[in-house]
């Protein structure tokens, strides 16, 4: 396991590229997922997508405080509702903004062995699932943001980075 360097917006255009579908569920994939989880926890984030560590593969790790979730080739099956809330990104340090996301989503994905799984999330987990899946398509939250959160507003709430 190792901490990998997190790519920042504006410094590397890999964040804007479309990640490739994972076809091989091998040891190398396991190492990537382990490293991604270590990197996410080290950075105090709640989610991390492979392009954020410079790897164009459709892999995501998430932990919103309910345990680690690993998603390979994730796709949103359905979503409902809409919530506007604060969001941040480990690739856009020092900044937070409001973004409208679904209240609830259901995602199909594969686990590290290639088995098909489904994950349903509400609230922060739904937000995080959408944020990370966007990363796989080169989309950053700043593309969808409504408004920046100022320091004054920031003092009033605690947010998460993904
Ligand atoms: Ni992010």
Question: What report would you give on this structure?
Answer:
By secondary structure, the protein is an alpha+beta fold. It has a single domain (13-157), classed as Peptide Deformylase. It has three helices and eight strands, in the order αβββββββαβα. The protein has helices at 27-42, 124-136, 151-156, and strands spanning 47-49, 59-62, 69-80, 83-89, 92-101, 104-110, 116-122, 147-148. A five-stranded antiparallel beta sheet has the order 1-2-3-6-7. The chain starts with 26 loop residues before the first helix and ends in a 6-residue tail after the last helix. Nickel (II) ion is lined by residues 89-91, 131, 135, 162.
**Arithmetic mean pLDDT:** 94
Largest β sheet strand count, sense and barrel closure: 5 strands, antiparallel
Proportion of beta-strand residues: 25-35%
> Would you identify the regions where 5 or more consecutive residues have pLDDT less than 50?
none
The percent of residues in helical segments reads: 10-25%
- Taking Cα atoms only, what radius of gyration do you get, to the nearest Å? 15 Å
CATH architecture: Alpha-Beta Complex
How many independent structural domains? 1
Q: How many helical stretches? A: 3
Q: Kindly, what is the distance between the CA atoms of the first and last residues, rounded to a whole number of angstroms?
A: 20 Å
CATH fold field value: Peptide Deformylase
Strand pairing plus helix content: what structural class? alpha+beta
Give me the side-by-side strand order of the main sheet.
Answer: 1-2-3-6-7
CATH class placement? Alpha Beta
CATH superfamily: Peptide deformylase
Report the principal-axis shape. Answer: globular
Number of strands: 8
Provide the list of bound ligands, each named once.
nickel (II) ion
**Secondary-structure element order, N to C:** HEEEEEEEHEH
């Amino acid at each position: 396991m190792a901490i990998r360097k997190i790519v920042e917006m504006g410094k590397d255009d890999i964040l804007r590229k479309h990640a490739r579908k994972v076809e091989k569920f091998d040891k190398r994939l396991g190492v990537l997922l382990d490293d991604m989880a270590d990197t996410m926890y080290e950075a105090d984030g709640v989610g991390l997508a492979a392009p954020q560590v410079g790897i164009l593969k459709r892999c995501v790790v998430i932990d919103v405080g309910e345990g680690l979730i690993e998603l390979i080739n994730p796709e949103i099956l359905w979503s409902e509702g809409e919530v506007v809330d604060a969001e941040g990104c480990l690739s856009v340090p020092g900044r937070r903004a409001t973004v409208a996301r679904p209240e609830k989503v259901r995602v199909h994905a594969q686990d590290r062995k290639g088995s098909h799984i489904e994950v349903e999330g509400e609230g922060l987990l739904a937000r995080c699932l959408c944020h990370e899946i966007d990363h796989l398509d080169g989309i950053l939250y700043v593309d969808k943001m409504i408004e920046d959160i100022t320091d004054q507003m920031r003092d009033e709430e605690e947010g998460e980075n993904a």
